[in-house]
Amino acid sequence: MLNSLITSETRIKLLLRFFLNPKARGYLRQLAKDFNESTNGIRVELNKLQQAGMLQSEQEGRNKVFRANTDHPLFDDIRSIVLKSTGIDKVVSNILQKLGPVQLAFIRGDYATGKDSGLIDLVVVGDTVNREELERVRLKTEQLINRKISVLVLTGSEYETLKESLQKETVLVLLERKS
User: Which of 147, 92, 146, 148 lies closest to 124, judged by CA?
Assistant: First the structure.
């Protein structure tokens, strides 16, 4: 969807990286390595996005580190477009709203770090999640967004046991209910 609006594949990758997860940060060589592209092409697009005010940067040692400018007037709109283009908005509306009482839901893996790999790795925490409904809606949503969805369902106690190891990963929280 984004490639019909934006012709630069590099710019699309950067928008996905920084707007899927607004906490994502990156520097030139790291991004070039992650995207398997030349540093020059990445630099040009980073500069354009920074000049437009969509990205901010700061110096950390020898690296200029970039991140999304969450204060930009179009931040929410751009993020919404990015989420819709990857189908994450459908994951939230179709799956999470139909499962029963969910305490926590987050995406980990590639999408949490801003890579559109085609596999959405969803973790759902809830003691009474309707697994049959989950599977039905998961399959329907996969067809709708043309991406695979892997779902790990954990009870509250299972999550507490795995919490420490899961918190070492980059995650994108979709839903969090305080008990």
Answer: 92
